[in-house]
């Protein structure tokens, strides 16, 4: 692989800027049968909490126009089981490991982060933006005071790893939340999580998913995500990881121009499990054809 | 994986049978497996977005078949794919039907749920198992591939709700009359049919496996969108992913809400 795709975020070196997004790639190992995980820049694993969580009732997913709604409810095996059973399997691959985590209270966020900080993962990604759980979740990401507190308190116990804060798009002014996260000590920002949405079956008059509302992801949300990365880039000085509806290398370039330093691929993994690896190759060819030495040269280069 | 569509046959207003050439897929496929199929022919079309799950209906000399019913965007796009086109799909996914040297078995299918049962019937027939088929549909349009099934089945019982083809009524009636004959039952179809068939099997102490149909996004165990609730040995309820731990489950253990 050429050097043009190598990046460094908060001191962590990635072979390429393509990271699989939390919740769309399981614990990474689910995909190992189908693709070569060594070719990915990084993997962000399913949101981990202190205790095992069973998630929401079924049905939990529904397809919408050029997107999908999900209300999985942050189901996961809990931090201890993750470290014992899942992490060693993922460690066998040469890819950076980002652990997405969440809590129902500030104390839980702090505790999970403290435990993960002692493992040999590469980065932590704090999820304060899940629209699908009642306690915690989105509340932390939509109230600037709570955002500040949870990031500040958690950052205090993290000694060894950079902390990414994953922002919610379900706010009027994302710039404010980017600023608050940075002030509270975030080392990087990832944006965006899913947009709160809803779909109704006109035959039964019932919502399609049991939680009534769900998180919208996929190509349908890309313009919103690009706009938010653009706004954040003008506001914060820490690196931004762009997420939302990426389906091909062109979308990646668009995120870079808006201000991203890396990207995460989510729903596209469902559409084609090989897509993240395909994007790495396409991106390399694009840079070569445009005579761009390093992908990072594109960050924030939109002419506006 | 990619393959060439060698046939995309309209069986009637509702059903299509697609035949795809792929040595690679055929070598891996076992009865019970399904695949995620890309319905749109162009990469830039993101609507519909997700691939669609379909059971392996039959395999033969480097080719496999899917039987599908027109439901919405995805299946309608599939029906428009021309012979000779390339189509993308996943490897064979999920678990498979299990066998324990049973000599006489019943297959129970409804509507498009008949799809994976043809592959199963053929496989069992080749193992010298005596196979009977119980096939239920709403109308005569839902009764398909009978001539194919005749090659592998001893006895076929068809029921339709309007009685135009086969006996009038539901498929569990003829099944219940003969059920003592069977050492194992395999079923695929609408949930209510699977539940009724499982209850019959449990009451007669006959092992039953059913293939379930849940809405799927990834098909490979990552999204947790396809859960099924199953009782374990201790009687506790566990969550299983239909796409990885299924789609074939022990019918006696399923919690049917
Ligand atoms: C393991 C498995 C095997 C299957 N095998 C067959 C088969 O052999 N033949 C066949 O005709 N059908 C089969 N199905 C059902 C088939 O996947 C759906 O009918 C099809 O996805 C509908 O797509 P659509 O775009 O036409 O409908 P739409 O209503 O437009 O689909 C909207 C969304 O809902 C999902 N969806 C809708 N209905 C179903 C359903 N019943 N099951 C799963 N997802 C659904 C779609 O995947 C899509 O994401 C199977 C389903 C599963 C889970
Ligand atoms: C099924 C599903 C589960 C998700 N689970 C998580 C999660 O556990 N933690 C998290 O931070 N984001 C989660 N997300 C959000 C994604 O990581 C990503 O931010 C979002 O889907 C937008 O990107 P996309 O359009 O490329 O999918 C989930 C998304 C989906 C579709
Ligand atoms: S469809 Fe994604 S886990 Fe089963």
Write a structural description.
The complex is a heterodimer of chains A (304) and B (257). With 304 residues, chain A is of the alpha/beta class. Chain A is built from nine helices and 14 strands. In chain A, a hairpin with a 2-residue loop joins strand 5 and strand 6 (67-70). In chain A, helix 6 packs parallel to helix 7 and helix 7 (249-258) packs across helix 9. Chain A is globular and about 55 Å long. Chain B is globular, with a radius of gyration of 18 Å. A seven-stranded mixed sheet of chain B has the order 11-10-9-8-12-13-16, sandwiched between helices. In chain B, strands 5-6-2-1-7 form a five-stranded antiparallel sheet. A two-stranded antiparallel sheet of chain B has the order 3-4. In chain B, strand 5 (58-60) and strand 6 form a beta hairpin. Chain B has helices spanning 23-28, 73-79, 115-126, 146-152, 172-178, 191-203; strands spanning 2-10, 15-21, 34-37, 52-55, 58-60, 63-69, 86-88, 104-110, 130-137, 155-160, 167-168, 184-188, 208-211, 227-231, 237-241, 248-250. Chain B is built from six helices and 16 strands. In chain B, helix 3 runs parallel beside helix 4 (146-152). The mean pLDDT of chain B is 96. Chain B has 257 residues and is α/β, with parallel strands linked by helices. The chains are: A alpha/beta (304), B alpha/beta (257). FE2/S2 (inorganic) cluster binds at residues 216-219, 221-226, 241-243 of chain B.
Keywords summarizing the entry:
heterodimer; A: about 300 residues; alpha/beta; 8-stranded parallel barrel; 4-stranded antiparallel sheet; 9 helices; 14 strands; about 30% helix; about 20% strand; globular; B: about 260 residues; 7-stranded mixed sheet; 5-stranded antiparallel sheet; 16 strands; about 20% helix; binds flavin-adenine dinucleotide; binds flavin mononucleotide; binds FE2/S2 (inorganic) cluster
């Amino acid at each position: 692989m050429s050097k043009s795709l190598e990046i460094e975020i908060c001191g962590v070196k990635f072979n390429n800027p393509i990271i699989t997004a939390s919740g769309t790639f399981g614990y990474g190992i689910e995909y190992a049968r189908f693709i070569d995980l060594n070719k990915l820049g990084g993997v962000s694993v399913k949101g981990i909490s202190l205790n095992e969580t069973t998630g929401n009732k079924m049905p939990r997913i529904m397809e919408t126009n050029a997107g999908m709604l999900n209300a999985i409810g942050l189901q996961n095996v809990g931090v201890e089981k993750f470290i014992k059973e899942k992490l060693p399997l993922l460690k066998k691959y040469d890819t950076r490991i980002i652990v997405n985590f969440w809590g129902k209270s500030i104390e839980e966020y702090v505790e999970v982060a403290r435990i993960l900080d002692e493992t040999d993962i590469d980065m932590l990604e704090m999820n304060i933006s899940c629209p699908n759980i009642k306690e915690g979740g989105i509340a932390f990401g939509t109230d600037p005071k709570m955002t500040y507190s949870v990031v500040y308190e958690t950052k205090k116990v993290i000694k060894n790893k950079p902390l990414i804060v994953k922002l919610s798009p379900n706010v009027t002014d994302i710039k404010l939340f980017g600023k608050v996260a940075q002030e509270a000590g975030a080392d990087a920002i990832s944006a965006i999580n899913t947009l709160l949405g809803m779909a109704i079956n006109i035959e039964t008059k019932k919502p399609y998913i049991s939680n009534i509302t769900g998180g919208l992801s996929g190509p349908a949300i890309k313009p919103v995500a690009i706009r938010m990365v653009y706004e954040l880039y003008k506001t914060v000085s820490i690196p931004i990881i762009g997420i939302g509806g990426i389906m091909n290398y062109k979308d990646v370039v668009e995120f870079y121009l808006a201000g991203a330093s890396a990207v995460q691929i989510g729903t596209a993994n469902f559409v084609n499990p090989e897509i993240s690896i395909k994007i790495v190759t396409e991106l390399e060819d694009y840079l070569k054809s445009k005579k761009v030495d390093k992908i990072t040269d594109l960050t924030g280069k939109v002419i506006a | 994986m990619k393959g060439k569509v060698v046939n995309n046959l309209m069986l009637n207003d509702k059903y299509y049978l697609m035949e795809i050439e792929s040595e690679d897929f055929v070598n891996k496929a076992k009865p019970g497996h399904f695949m995620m199929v890309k319905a749109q022919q162009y990469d830039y079309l993101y609507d519909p977005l997700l691939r669609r799950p379909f059971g392996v209906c039959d395999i033969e000399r480097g080719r496999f078949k899917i039987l599908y019913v027109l439901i919405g965007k995805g299946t309608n796009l599939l029906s428009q794919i021309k012979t000779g086109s390339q189509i993308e799909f996943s490897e064979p996914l999920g678990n498979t039907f299990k066998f324990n040297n049973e000599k006489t078995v019943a297959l129970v299918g409804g509507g498009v749920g008949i799809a994976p049962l043809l592959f199963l019937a053929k496989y069992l027939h080749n193992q010298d198992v005596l196979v009977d088929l119980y096939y239920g549909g709403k109308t005569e349009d839902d009764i398909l591939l009978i001539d194919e099934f005749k090659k592998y089945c001893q006895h076929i019982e068809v029921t339709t709700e309007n009685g135009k083809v086969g006996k009038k009524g539901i498929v569990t009636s003829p099944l219940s009359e003969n059920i003592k004959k069977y050492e194992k039952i395999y079923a695929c179809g609408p949930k209510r049919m699977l539940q009724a068939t499982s209850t019959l099997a449990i009451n007669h102490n006959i092992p039953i496996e059913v293939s379930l149909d849940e809405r799927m996004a990834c098909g490979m165990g990552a999204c947790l969108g396809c859960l099924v609730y199953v009782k374990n040995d201790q009687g506790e309820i566990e969550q299983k992913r239909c796409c990885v731990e299924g789609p074939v489950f022990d019918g006696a253990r399923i919690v049917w809400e």
